[in-house]
Input
Amino acid sequence: GQNIDQPTEMTATEGAIVQINCTYQTSGFNGLFWYQQHAGEAPTFLSYNVLDGLEEKGRFSSFLSRSKGYSYLLLKELQMKDSASYLCAVRVISSGSARQLTFGSGTQLTVLP
Amino acid sequence: GAGVSQSPSNKVTEKGKDVELRCDPISGHTALYWYRQSLGQGLEFLIYFQGNSAPDKSGLPSDRFSAERTGGSVSTLTIQRTQQEDSAVYLCASSLGSWTGELFFGEGSRLTVL
Output
């Protein structure tokens, strides 16, 4: 099976930088994804890493180390609207070629003024 | 439509009744996923369809749960003899194919079992 760990809650101040960590243990690893979910809404895709290193996308960056089973999502210049749950998800290959995403429980980020 | 459409948006049922939840994915998307999310929890994988391949049913919690996808498009998730612990938001997502992890989620169907 898969085991994905991320902090339950984090708090940061508007304009600051916050790093949300995610560790995973899985077989058949085939990529790591970050999703954002505002309360009462569906998750939306943020970023994708399949190779080691940093992927930057505007105010959001995501890092992956496959050897360490570790990823982080970095949010810069925090805005109030960034208050949301951030879900780490691992793609695995199972049943031959079938691929599914397994999600962590999410990190609830609260941005304070 | 432009996005993933799910119905009903809300369903209240009595324990022991059967329910059907429908998902209409984005046109042209070959991969379709069902997840469920309990209050304050992460997403629990249920089932995954990819094209004409056999679905990955490894996440279905019991044999009361089943899903089908007709014509490679619309999917129906059926829960038989519902129990109170089945209460959750059932989310459907689609993607262009199995190679991409960019899933497009519907707004979900909130199921409440009394």
